[in-house]
Amino acid sequence: MPKKLPTPAMPLSTTAPWRVQDIVALYELPFAELVHRAQSVHRQHFDPTELQLSSLLSIKTGGCPEDCGYCSQSSVHDAGVKGQPLMPLEEVVAAARAARDQGAQRFCMGAAWRSPKPRQVEAVARMIGAVKALGMETCVTLGMLDDAQARQLADAGLDYYNHNLDTSPEFYGSIISTRTYQDRLDTLAHVRATGVKVCCGGIIGMGESRVVRAGLISQLANLDPYPESVPINHLMPIPGTPLAGTPPLDPFEFVRTIAVARITMPRAVVRLSAGRESMDDAMQALCFLAGANSMFYGEKLLTTGNPRLQHDQALLERLGMRAAGTTADGAAERA
Ligand code: SAM
Ligand code: DTB
Ligand code: SF4
User: Fold this and answer.
1) How many domains does the chain have?
2) Closest ligand 2 atom to the C-alpha of 305?
3) Is residue 8 part of a domain?
4) CB within 8 A of 175, min separation 6: which ones?
5) Three-class SS of residue 64?
6) Ligand 1 neighbours by CB, cut-off 6 Å
7) Is 244 part of a structural domain of the chain?
8) pTM, whole model, 2 decimals?
9) CATH number for the domain including 292?
10) Radius of gyration of the chain (CA)
11) What is the tens place of the pLDDT at every residue in 37-85?
């Protein structure tokens, strides 16, 4: 007879909060049990062979006044990133068209701003309209927004706003000093109020403890409603940033985090985000098994690399997986 495994406490209703200790209890399950539970939850809401594919473009690079310890684009650190002003509309549209033609379903545009100025919001609003006209979903990440800025982006037809909580409230101050956790929560509330879908997650592997990881997941899962899209980034230790020398994380701990995100946010799309370039194929397969069902597709993230397209295509083929919303031969499904 198999040994009876502990059953971590679950919230009594969908509105009851996930306590950090409940999430730690999930992390502590034997690996096979945790992944099995996550895969079971995953199958209740998603086809486990489907993956959502987004491409990312840095539309404004470097020179950011914030001091996020992981980021190559902060002007406070010297990671040797060449700063670039806001890209012209035509270049953004050309990049989006190329991403679409390679199979990306969503185009995510990132700008290294603390918060955008009025003319910058106007310019990004035009980009959103033009990318939507290509038949793609849009996502932007521009830093902090007030209520009016969020509405302006919503009016332009924006589908998702990415704004990460990144870590637990207690650990936040060790990573970033130029803004508060509450600033992040305020922007998320402004976005939520407009009806734009929320993309919010964090970074794992910054030297944090398991309780800190559980604290991040608890914050995300207790947002009401929780985000539609949850990026789980693996720290990319970038030379010149304060986190460059962070000791490596046990890879199973990253997979456990994906599983715990899947269990606590059953209907969210969980995104295997930064860090895939340093993961082997088996590790990525484990992440998909644990409930990740989205990834960045394209050879560049913002300032760092991502796996080659041919490699990703071959990986999906070998795993019998395909882009969400496409038939097995790759043609777009008809409504
Ligand atoms: N400036 C905006 C902001 O911070 O909200 C948007 C761009 S910022 C680069 C988007 C996210 O990328 C961060 O919140 C963080 O989660 C992730 N990120 C940045 N640098 C990273 C790194 N070195 N490794 C992993 N994730 C990283
Ligand atoms: C997110 O959570 N991850 C993406 C996206 N949102 C904007 C960014 C990853 C950045 C990785 C480091 C870089 O390329 O500079
Ligand atoms: Fe600026 Fe965003 Fe990088 Fe922080 S993560 S330094 S806010 S670009």
Assistant:
1) 1
2) 14
3) no
4) 68, 69, 70, 166, 167, 206, 243
5) strand
6) 70-71, 110, 112-113, 141, 143, 163-164, 166, 203, 233, 235-236, 238, 274, 302
7) yes
8) 0.94
9) 3.20.20.70
10) 19
11) 999 999 999 999 999 999 999 999 999 999 999 999 999 999 999 999 9
